[in-house]
Fold each of these.
Amino acid sequence: MAASMARTCRYLSRHVSCILPRRTNVCFTLRSEFHCSSPAHNGLLFSLNKRGILKDSFPEDAAQDQLPRLLKSGAQTVYCGFDPTADSLHVGNLLAIIGLLHFRSAGHHVLAVLGGATAQIGDPSGKTSERERLSVDAVEANTRSIRESIHRIFTNHELQFQDSSRKMGTVTVLNNLSWYKDWGVVGFLSEAGRHFRMGTMLSRHSVQSRLKGADGMSLTEFTYQVFQAYDFHHLNQIYGCKIQLGGTDQLGNVMSGHEYIHKVSGEEVYGLTIPLVTSSVGDKLGKTAGNAVWLNRDKTSPFELYQFFLRQPDASVEGYLKLFTFLPLAEVERLMEQQREDPGKRLAHKRLAAEVTKLVHGKEGLESAKRCTNALYHSSVQALEEMSDKELQELFREAPFHELLLEPGTTVIDACRRVSAIPEGPRGYRMVLEGAVWVNHRRTDNPEQVLIPKLHILSNGLTLFRVGKRNFYIIKWLSL
C-alpha cells in the first residue's frame, strides 16, 4: 500500500498539470494532498491527516504550501471554540480537543475559547431549528463546568501521554464574553457589520439549509457567523492566532473569519476542519441528536465512557484508535493484526476504551471503569468490595441507594422489605424462596438468613441486592 501510494505521488508530481483540472472550490479535502506535498511530508499536518483528524483546509493552497511553512517557522497559536450550551462537552467535541492537544504536543500554543456570548445567540450550523434560549445564569454555570473539564483533559494528557523530553506549547482557556460585554449593538454593527456582505452570508450552507425549512432562520442566528468571525479577528490581534480548528459544519464560519480579517488587517490566516464523529448508523453524536456521550463524570461515568468505546463495531475500531488515541500508527497496526489473529480477545477494543477513558478521566477514572466492568459483567465480589459509594451509584445509575442502620439479626427478607425490593406479604417471601433475589452476585433462597458481615455485607459496608434480572438496590449499612 505504502509503495503504491509513493509511486502515485511521484507520478502526480510529474504529471499534475495534465491530470488535475483547475480547482474552483474555495476549500479542498486534505486527504490526498498531504501525501503528495513535500513541504508537509513528515510534518504535523501530514501526521494528523494520516490519522484522519484533518479533513478540509481554507484557503485553497494552505495545506500544500503556506500552512506547513508557517508551522515550521516557529510556534504558532491555534484556537478552537466551544459554545457552553450544556454543562458538559461530549464525545463529538473530544476530537476537536484532541486536535488541539496534537498542536500543543508539537510545541504550538492553543486557545480553547468558550462562547459565553455566542451561546446566547446559537450556532445554526447542523441544526434544523433554533436552539432554546439559555439564561445568562445557565450559560455562566455551563461555562464554569466546561472550563474545568477542558483543564482536566489537558492535565491528563500532560501527565499520561506527553513525552517529557518534548517542549509543549501553552494552553489558555478564554471566554468570548470578556471582549463582547462592553460592546453596544450600534457600536459593534458600525465597527464589524460593515465588512460583511449579505450575498456572501446568505450563500453559507448553514443559512441556506435553514431558509429552506418551514421555520426559516431568525436574525439572531443569522448573525452568528459575524460573531465567530470577530472572535477570530480578536484572537488574531491580541494573541497572534492565525489558525482556527473546527468541525466540518463550521467551515462557513471559518471562511467568514478569514474574509473579515483579510479585509480589516490584511493578515493571512487559516482554517482547518476535523470530521464529525458519527454513530455506527451515521448519525452525528451530540446534544441535538440526543445520543451524546458526555465528558463530565456526573453525566457519563468513566464506566459508561469505557463501555461506549468497548462496544464500537469492529469496522470502526481501527479508525477510532487513530482518531481518539495518541498511539503511534505502527502500534495501531500491530494491535489490529493481533485482533485479526484472535478476534475473541478484542484487544484493540479494550485498548481504545482504556486510552480514551484515561485521557478524559485520568488513571483513577480508568481503574474505576475496570472495577465497575468486573463487578457488573464478571460478577466479581472483590471488585464490589473495592468500589466506592459513588462508583456503585454510577454503575447502577437508576438503582435506589439507601443508608440503613444495621440492627442485630437483620435477615434477607427484612432488608428486602426495608428498601421495597419485594412486595409485602407472602408474595415477597415466596420470591426469595424461589431464588429471585441475589445478594452481592450470590443467589439466596432463605428469607430468614441473617446478614453476615464479609458475606452479605462487604468490607466497605455495602450490600448489592438484585431482584430478577435488572432491578438493583444498593444499601449502605450504618453501624448502631
Note: Confidence is low (pLDDT under 50) at residues 1-42.
Amino acid sequence: MRLKDFLDLPFTCHLFIGIIIRVALIVYGDFHDKLYDVPYTDVDYKVFTDAARHVVKGHSPYKRHTYRYSPLIAYFLVPNIRWGKNCGKLLFSVFDILVTVAVKYLVEYQLGSKKNTKNIPVYCALFWLYNPLSIGISTRGNADSVPCFFIILSILFLQTDIVKSNWKYALSGILLGISIHLRLYPLAFSFPMYLSLGEYKINRNTSIKDGIISLLPNLKQMTLVTSCVGTLFLLTYYMYKLYGYEFLFETYIYHMFRKDTRHNFSVLFYYSYLTMDQLTFDVVKLLAQVFEGIILFVGSLAFGTNPKTLPFALFFQAVVLVAYNSVMTSQYFIWFLSLLPLVVHNFRLKPANALFLTVVWVFSQAAWLFYAYLLEFKCRQVFILIWLKGIVFFCANIYVLGQLVKSYSPGYAFGEFLASVEKIK
C-alpha cells in the first residue's frame, strides 16, 4: 500500500488503528515492566494510583508523598483501585483520541471552503494520532493528554460556531479554567486568547487616548475572562475546602520553586543540582523567568491579536514555556506537540527541511537521554555531560522554533508537502 493510500483511509479507520495501537502498548507495558530495568510505565502513574487509593479510603490524595497534582487526577484513577490497574492508561488514551477528533474539526474550520484542502484536516489529525510521543505519553500513564484535550476544545469553541452567541466564549473560558486548574501552563494561553477577540487599529498616528480605548475589553473578552476566572476560582476553592493549604502548596506553590535534578532536560539542570539545598533568593531562575515572560508577551502581541494566527501564538507560547522552564521532562513536550497539528499545514517547508528539523530535535534529545541513562542506571558520574547536552537541546529547541516562525504562513496548506506525498510509493 502506498503512503498516500494509507493516509486516505476513512478517518474512522485511522481512529480504530490508533485505538488498537494504544491498547496493544498498554498490554505490552505490563510485560515490559516485569522484564526490563527501565520500566515502560511512567513513575507518575504509580503516584496517581497510590493517591487514588487514599481517595477511595476517604483520605487526602496528598498523603501519597510526591503527589503534586490536582485531586481531580486522583479521582480519575479511582477505577484503577476498583476495577484494574490499567483503567487510568485507557482513560488517558481516550483523551488522546479525543484530541485527534478535536484537531480535525478545528482545522476544517480554519481551512473553510478553500480548494484542494479536502484531506488536510485528516492529515493534521493523523499528525497527532500516530505521533510516537503522544502515543507513548498516554499509554505509559501520563495525564497530560487530559489538559491538552481541554485546551484544544477551548480553542474549538472560541473559534468556531459549534455553539452560537456569546455562550461559546463562556464555554471556551470554562474549559480553559479547567485546564489551568489541572496544569498551570495554560495560564499563559489566556492572554493571546483574550487578544484574539479584540479589534486593534493602532499605528504610529494613533493618539494615546484612542490607543487606550481600543485596548479596553469588549463583551466577548469579558465573557471569556469571567468564565475562565470563575471556573478556576470555584474549582480551586472547592479543593481548598476539602484539602486545605496542603492542596495549594502541592498543586501550585511547589511548582513555582521546584528544583528537579532527575529526568530534567532543562539548561538549568546542573545549576539546580548544585544549589539544591540552598534556600536563598534564586537570581538566576528569576532572570530566566523574566526573559521568558518578555518573549511570551512579545509572542502574544505578534501572533495573538489575529484570530487566524491564534493557534500559532499558543504553539509558540508552549515551546517557549517548555524550553525556558527550569524543569523539563518528556511529558512537557506534549504541551506544544498537541498544538502543532493545528498549525503544521501553515509551514512553508519542503519535506527535506521538515525532516532535517525533526532530526535536529530528536537527536539532540536522544543524546541527553543516553547520558541520563548512564547516570541513573549505570551510576556514572556524567553530570557535566548531561548539562552540556541540555544546552545543546535548548539550542535545538530555539533553532527549530526560529525556523518554524520564519516559515509560518497563515493560509498556506501543505502545498509542496502534498505534492511530494503523491510521488511516494
Note: The first helix runs from residue 3 to 7.
